[in-house]
Write the structure tokens for this entry.
Amino acid sequence: MTQVQEFKKQFIWRDDARINAVKEDYERVIDKYNSFFLIVEKALNITLSDVQKISISQSRDKAIIDILKPDFPFPKADDAFNLQAMGLNINSLLSEARTLHLLFSKHELKNGNLVLTDDFINEITENATIYTANEKQNKALELAKNFEALFDEAEELGVVSSYNKSGINNIIKILDFPLGSSKITLSRYGITDIRE
């Protein structure tokens, strides 16, 4: 009876620049929210609870009105009338709230400030990471690593002249390993190119 070996995906490459760019984009939005919370607290003369901060990050201007509704002097009147009766002119605050990007479940509160969740950071990382998808790709990756190790060993022994280094690099650069619709290129520095 032949035993079937279970496929195990192998790590190929992680696009750290892409990970950092996505994180920085979301962190800029989160920084805007954290600053906006201070503006809301000052404008409304209140201290926002964690629940209210999360609500604002998910519902923006509607959440601000919901925070004020329990204090509306005329519950059956419209929001604009109640805000005027309370002496609050927060139209610019509500407009600013509508310009903020919705975050939904990509954030959580820590020490009163929004931060990216660990799950979202892991999702960003996984989306920017390439793994092998089958045994053929595992074998191609193993061959690429073997080429790299052999070249390093030859270099350490001093048997590769500077002329030969560029020649070997040119040969290795033409060794493309298929990854489904992508290909990787091996150079003396490891995997140097991934093409879709």
User: Anything to note?
Assistant: Residues 131-195 form one domain. The two ends are 40 Å apart (CA to CA). The CA atoms of residues 72 and 84 lie 10 Å apart.
